[in-house]
Request: fold
Amino acid sequence: MFTGIIECLGHIKSVEHDGTNIKFGVQSSISHELKIDQSVAHDGVCLTVIGLDNDTHFVTAIQETLSRTSLNHWQVGRKVNLERCLKVGDRLDGHWVQGHVDTTGICKQIVNENGSWVLRIEYLPQPDYKTVEKGSITLNGTSLTVVESGEGYFTVAIIPYTYEHTTIHQMQVGDTVNLEFDIIGKWVKAWLK
Reply:
């Protein structure tokens, strides 16, 4: 379980294809503190640490993960948002995030509001993928509040701290992003069925 509050940025150091899987080497300021078998959210994708080498940790993405996320687009040098899992007793500063990406979306617009930024994200509408205004959404692992919600799209407003300390500062129109919809909304939807 995660909160969507990004701890640090990692850099993709290596990309190794192994059958239908991809093994990534990720260099970061927290890599030396990780342990094998530990879960870490990488751009919102919960991946298990399978190896360590000084300031680099290694994770593997299987076909199921690759088919639902943007990991196929990762290349050496790319920055990724990193968050270690929540400890019992910690403050929950974001919202409940599982690290299980539901689908991808496309950044369709970035508006500079002279002190903040508004992003418009579009995704293929499906009955289980809903946002609500002032509700939560996880975008590349970052917990954000929905400003505007519509069929197959939403907007979020980004404060300067979030812009500077996550990969949002490198986002461009047309980029593919990982989306995890709010677990509470998913449970309510399932219960109403």
Observations:
- The mean pLDDT is 93.
